[in-house]
Amino acid sequence: MKTRFLKFALLAAIGSSLSAQPVTEEAPPAEIAAKVAAATAAADAGGQGPFKAEMVSDASLPTHTIYRPKNLAAASARGKLPILAWGNGACTNIGNRFRYFLTEIASNGYVIVAIGPKGPRNAEWKVSLDANNPLPPAERLPGSYADQLGDAIDWAVKENARKGSPYFGRLDTNAIAVAGQSCGGLQAISAAADKRVKTLMVLNSGSFPDTTKPLAGTGDARKASLKRIHMPVLWMSGDESDVAYKNANADFEAFTTGPAIRAFHAGTGHSEHYRDLRGGIFTPYVIDWLDWQLKHKAAAKQTFTGPGCTLCKAAGWTVKQKGL
Q1: Domain range for 46
Q2: Cα–Cα distance between 297 and 312 in angstroms, integer?
Q3: Beta-carbon contacts of residue 145 (< 8 Å; ≥ 6 apart)
């Protein structure tokens, strides 16, 4: 617990320092400028869901970035808002790294607490980031930690109970998911041991063999740690060209303590689609998974279950199911 507190304090101090410093924005290359402009405009508009979403910072949690419906009162009037704790690819400690993707999810009535403070806009569209952060060396943040997903959940639960909070009584603390992409997916596997978590999404990711040295910041994301997880799990990735494809397959086969789905898409690599308009091809299925698992929507369940499931019939997708 002491180590976790020290990590949180360090990240909070650096996050506050970063937010106070001007950052020079990098313009996208001409060949992708139109694509970036469209994706950015869609995020600025708040997503396609029934609730326009926004990306905000909160002084009480400077180590994270929050995606939420702009009008929390109107959104929660239709039902309390589930919580998603998100870990970034490469364990990057920049909260707007997956902005296109997370804004779209939030617009469907979710409060998402993503690891990392907001960084420059070029973090949103660059496929790869130099040294984990697109910042000058003096301003670079350290990599993130799996414990930050637990911090995200702790904060959301406390805000839901705190009088005067904009989230007071509006969050569903019995409907919590953890998810992440690539290295963030390993962080999510580690965080899924938390008994408050009801579902796990592992995107373009999978644990390494127990004989392999764990990646820094991923916590307990060994193959053996899968036995600690007792909840529905979605493993979603690209095809064999995705570096995480084999690990995701192995995780799905090894997982025996809960229902699970393994889905991969032909012609998709490791991370490029998240920089596409509205977060790319995974977005609608991730929303349906959350709608099924956390909001218990029958229509969303049909996306994944039965031989005629929507995802099973979608072009380019291969789906395996067990325990459903």
Answers
A1: 2-322
A2: 18
A3: 4, 7, 11, 91, 187, 217, 219
CATH number of the domain residue 243 falls in = 3.40.50.1820
Nearest C-alpha neighbor of 239 from the set 134, 129, 318, 151: 318
Task: Supply 33's token pair.
Answer: 């400028």
Between CA 295 and CA 200 the distance in angstroms is 15
Q: pLDDT for 169-218, tens place per residue?
A: 999 999 999 999 999 999 999 999 999 999 999 999 999 887 777 788 89
Task: Output the pTM of the full model.
Answer: 0.90
Nearest by Cα to 218 from 286, 155, 118, 149: 149
Question: What Å distances lie between residue 95 and 19, 159, 266, CA to CA?
Answer: 12, 19, 29
222: its two tokens:
């060994």
Task: Spell out the residues 6+ positions from residue 39 whose beta carbon is closer than 8 angstroms to its own.
Answer: 100, 124, 125, 275, 276, 277, 278
Say how many residues make up the chain: 324
Distance CA 187, CA 215 (A): 10
Amino acid at 140: R
- Burial of 65-76, coded b for 16+ CB within 10 Å and e otherwise, reads bbbbbeebeebb
Say how many C-beta atoms besides its own lie within 10 A of residue 40's C-beta. 17
Exposed, middle or buried: residue 3 (CB in 10 Å: 0-12, 13-18, 19+)? exposed
Average pLDDT over residues 247-262: 97
Q: How far apart are CA 63 and CA 245, in angstroms?
A: 30
Enumerate the H helices of 49-201 as residue ranges: 72-76, 99-106, 122-125, 147-161, 183-191
Q: Which tokens in the block code for residue 169?
A: 């009584």
Q: How many domains would you assign to the chain? A: 1
Query: CA angle 70-134-206, nearest 5°?
Result: 75
Q: SS in 3 state form for 225-260?
A: HHHHCCCCEEEEEECCCCCCHHHHHHHHHHCCCCCE
**Token pair for residue 219?**
């916590």
